[in-house]
Amino acid sequence: MKNILFVCSRNKWRSLTAETIFKNNPNYEVKSAGTENSARIRINANHIIWADTIFVMEKKHHERLLEKFPKDMNNKKIVILEIQDIYKYMDAELIEELKNSLTEYL
Prior knowledge:
By secondary structure, the protein is α/β, with parallel strands linked by helices. The protein has helices spanning 14-22, 45-50, 59-68, 92-102, and strands spanning 2-8, 28-34, 53-56, 77-80. A 4-stranded parallel sheet has the order 2-1-3-4. The protein is globular. β3 (53-56), α3 and β4 (77-80) form a beta-alpha-beta unit. It has one domain: Response regulator (Rossmann fold, 3-Layer(aba) Sandwich), CATH 3.40.50.2300.
């Protein structure tokens, strides 16, 4: 089983939606977290260490992870999805965009 981590800014809409739609997949253990201090679940080193693959919604999230966790990010598979912060939790368009973006990986 692969450990998958989804990351956005506040872990309220994009990464939480991704976690929700993939959490029942028997091939993956899925978590989500945010990079901001105001995040619902704030990312920490344990999340990074746990994850086999990290999907970030935007390039800035990747940069923040490299900045905050430089050692833990070594040799981690990171995928930047380029999904903008324009959706609400479980928005139908967001779900479609996530599924399309993740098809080649999951």
